[in-house]
Write a structure and sequence with these properties.
The chain is an alpha/beta fold. 48% of the residues lie in helices and 16% in strands. It is globular. Bound molecules: zinc ion.
């Protein structure tokens, strides 16, 4: 029956391209979605994008040409070099050393180890004309995927920072030659593929403070843009670690001990017991990575690690509260103590029509292959969602592979002609968008307006959800 309901929803509801997935969310968001539509009709991002891209200036042409040259002459080889020397998340030491060296040689000041993350960095450049202008931000990732045969760049993160560098160099030359005030910040963000979410940590440490706009490229099996609104690719997530502490004792005098593994197992079972209490869209998976070392000693230390997922953050909070209570209950029942560490959060991000349409218009103008004219569900431009709520931005992702994500085929395409052509376009489009942002005040204003309105609508949506869920999430 549930399957039937889901099928009917998928068939009849236009919501598949929206950020809301469950019937409750769709109903709660109805008014908010109407207002997003009204906002889009009023600001008409597609028409604006066509106007901007259609009215070319020699300066912008020159920026895009020089970005292409930077790609051809140096950055393509750098992308391939990183691709051939993959390092997994939090271990990208050689990659970062290489990137930092290149950035310093190109005139950037680089601060490494930002937010206390060994492989995170910020490269800064301020215009000789002064900093009284926009701060243009670019995001670069570089972690490879884990695999039993060793790390590999099956998501083409090897290209991201070279793409960002090419774009930054084109803008830097323009701002210098034309005496345009402003700043460029290139954020090196590690470990996109493994938790805890690096961008959230960097965001909370204030690393992105001051950026007026952020752009980021990514591999793609098509050229598509997002619909304006809010959403996330793969549910909102809380990553929570529960550490139980007991007291060790020899097996033969176990009455002197307090068994942390017993607490962990009890907790794990309690969470299974909660499953029918949660709405069906919930996804909860946990592991017990630490549960003692020797059978003749009462385990005094055990860890349970959970990924708790739900399509929206309001219900997710409710689930997490109940699971936290189950952990406390298991600790009480076993005479142990539990500490709860929520080490990662992924949330709905904000997608702006203004910037996504502008990206798509440039992609069409440059002849990007494999165009999908249907706007995709909004998911923000970075995976944690948090940064997108504070800083407007866009993900630029021209077709760069015949294969799907996280595959050897995508890695191979990233090192070949299809990837190279896509990355070159990504860099040119990112530079063009930042050029427009830098030089077009009315574009800056409409971006700010759209972002603040969508942000307000997102919090209204959450308020509406809290009302709808109130009877069932009451504590
Ligand atoms: Zn990725």
């Amino acid at each position: 029956m549930r399957i039937l309901t889901t099928l009917i929803l998928i068939v009849v509801a236009p919501s598949v391209a929206l950020g809301q997935t469950t019937p409750t969310e769709i109903a709660a968001a109805a008014d908010v979605l109407t207002r997003i539509e009204a906002l889009q009709t009023r600001i008409d991002p597609a028409a604006r994008a066509a106007r901007i891209v259609g009215s070319s200036t020699p300066a912008r042409e020159e920026v895009m040409r020089s970005v292409g040259t930077w790609w051809d002459d140096e950055m393509e080889a750098l992308s391939d070099h990183i691709g051939h020397n993959p390092e997994v998340g939090w271990q990208e030491f050689e990659t970062v050393a290489t990137l930092v060296k290149v950035l310093r040689a190109k005139g950037f000041t680089v601060e490494t180890g930002v937010a206390n993350l060994a492989t995170a960095f910020v490269a800064s450049w301020d215009s000789p004309a002064g900093t009284d202008g926009p701060t243009l931000g670019l995001i670069g990732e570089y972690d490879a995927l884990r695999d039993i045969e060793g790390p590999f760049h099956g998501d083409q993160h090897n290209a991201q920072t070279p793409v960002a560098i090419a774009a930054a160099l084109g803008l830097k030359a323009y701002m210098t030659d034309a005496s345009v005030p402003g700043s460029i910040r290139l954020y090196g963000t590690p470990a996109e593929e493994v938790g805890p979410p690096a961008k959230t940590i960097m965001y909370e440490a204030g690393v992105f403070d001051g950026a007026d706009i952020l752009v980021r490229s990514h591999s793609s099996d098509q050229t598509a843009r997002g619909r304006a609104g809010f959403g996330v690719c793969c549910l909102n997530i809380n990553e929570v670690k529960y550490t139980f502490t007991g007291r060790p004792a020899h097996q033969l005098t176990s009455w002197n001990g307090r068994n942390a593994l017993s607490a962990a197992v009890r907790f794990y079972t309690s969470v299974d017991g909660l499953r029918s209490t949660f709405r069906p869209e919930a996804s909860i998976q946990g592991v017990i990575p630490e549960g003692g070392v020797a059978p003749n000693v009462v385990p005094a230390h055990a860890v349970v690690d959970y990924y708790i997922r739900y399509p929206d953050e309001v219900y997710l909070e409710h689930m997490t509260n109940m699971i936290d209570d189950a952990a406390r209950g298991a600790a009480m029942a076993t005479g142990t103590e539990v500490s709860i560490d929520r080490y990662g959060e992924y949330r709905d991000g904000i997608t702006l029509g203004t910037l996504d349409e502008l990206y798509f218009e440039y992609a069409k103008a440059l002849g990007a292959p494999n165009l999908n004219e249907v706007p995709q569900r909004p998911a923000g431009y970075e995976e944690t969602g948090w940064v997108t709520r504070e800083i407007p931005g866009v993900g630029v992702s021209v077709y760069s592979s015949r294969e799907t994500y996280h595959t050897k085929g995508m890695e191979a395409d990233g090192l070949g002609e299809i990837g190279h052509a896509g990355f070159r376009m990504d860099a040119q489009i990112m530079a063009a968008i930042l050029y427009d942002y830098l030089t077009n005040e009315s574009l800056r204003n409409v971006i700010a307006e759209e972002h603040s309105e969508l942000k307000a609508l997102l919090s209204e949506y959450h308020q509406r959800l809290r009302e709808v869920y109130a009877p069932e999430i009451e504590r």
